[in-house]
């Protein structure tokens, strides 16, 4: 088995996935927002916001875990991606850290399946190709080291993002 056999690329709404944890591309307040964050809070119900209020926010590049509430997923791992500011403000390292800290939390909870959205590629403006390379590099590094995750899913919103992930996985 190579690490790539543990990676799945799907297209659709991450809130519908039946996995141990879905990852939320949140903001530093952890109090909800637009994009995937809004979709997750709507699908999880008000219990998620109530639990998030007690977390006191999250720094960029870090991650915190909550229950999944009304989602199929047992947990939500909230991570805060960097806002793209041209690429010379540590964006790549911060984005890599989002994947690393999320996967470390998943390990700490002995989770076996996790689904990531394309962190920072929406309103945070990170160029898609660079963000996808970071996501795939971190997935490979984690899976080669053999933590608890056996299924690592990249949930792409729309066909163009799905195609980019497929190409990036093939080239990795
Ligand atoms: P960020 O602020 O980190 O850029 P966004 O939510 O604006 O977060 O976008 C991150 C990615 O999530 C984008 O590629 C966007 O298309 C995607 N996205 C939005 N809604 C969903 C959803 N329901 N499921 C999966 N991905 C989603």
UniProtKB/TrEMBL annotation:
Annotated signal peptide: none
GO molecular function, one term: deacetylase activity
Domain annotation Macro: ranges: 1-172
Pfam families in alphabetical order: Macro
PANTHER family reported in the protein's UniProt record: GANGLIOSIDE INDUCED DIFFERENTIATION ASSOCIATED PROTEIN 2-RELATED, MACRO DOMAIN-CONTAINING PROTEIN
Protein name: O-acetyl-ADP-ribose deacetylase
Species the sequence originates in: Vineibacter terrae
